[in-house]
Write a structure and sequence with these properties.
rod-shaped, mainly alpha, two-stranded antiparallel ribbon, 6 helices
């Protein structure tokens, strides 16, 4: 009789099946862990992108609002002093961040705002101005003022829409009771 005839093939098969099963289990676990890590990485990346856009949109909203206040001062003949402009990022820095992170509607609204702001600045320095009590005043009906006012509204609307899209109702922070009181008053 040969050696092959004396081998208990069932025992050999069972002996090989154990280590193969263990290796298959390890491979499946590694694959599942890799998929879970990839999904977590994608979620973290999307959250970070949303956070960066949120910070950018707040900076843009502050910049636009400060220019809204400045425009209100520039078109109000009864104003005694000008609104102090807070420390804001330079528009070129904001523009660079807009080009990197903002959505198309925000990019378009920001470009419109910058162009309108440039025209209004030129009007205030070189155009049809009125001098009242040591201040320069632009007529609220001045085309540059009207254009800037529309650009400000457009930018604020685009920013609000994008923030609402990035933070759907189920992911927004809960409103504090103080906010509810103010809103209902």
């Amino acid at each position: 009789m040969s050696i092959l005839g004396q081998i208990n093939w069932t025992a050999v098969f069972v002996a090989l099946l154990g280590p193969l099963s263990a290796l298959a289990g390890v491979a499946m676990t590694q694959r599942a862990t890799g998929r879970r890590d990839d999904a977590r990485w994608e979620r973290d990346r999307a959250d970070r992108r949303r956070e960066i856009r949120g910070e950018l949109y707040v900076d843009l909203a502050e910049y636009v609002q400060s220019h809204q206040s400045m425009l209100d001062d520039l078109t109000d003949e009864y104003i005694e002093g000008r609104t102090r402009i807070p420390d804001l990022p330079h528009p070129d820095r904001l523009t660079a961040r807009v080009r990197l992170h903002a959505t198309e509607p925000v990019r378009h609204a920001w470009t419109e705002f910058l162009e309108a702001h440039g025209h209004t600045t030129w009007e205030a320095r070189e155009g049809d101005v009125q001098i009242t009590r040591h201040t320069i005043m632009l007529d609220p009906d001045n085309p540059a003022v009207v254009r800037l006012t529309a650009a400000i509204r457009s930018a604020q609307t685009a920013l609000r829409a994008e923030i609402d899209a990035d933070y759907p109702p189920d992911r927004r922070p809960a409103a504090s009771p103080r906010r509810w009181r103010r809103a209902s008053a």
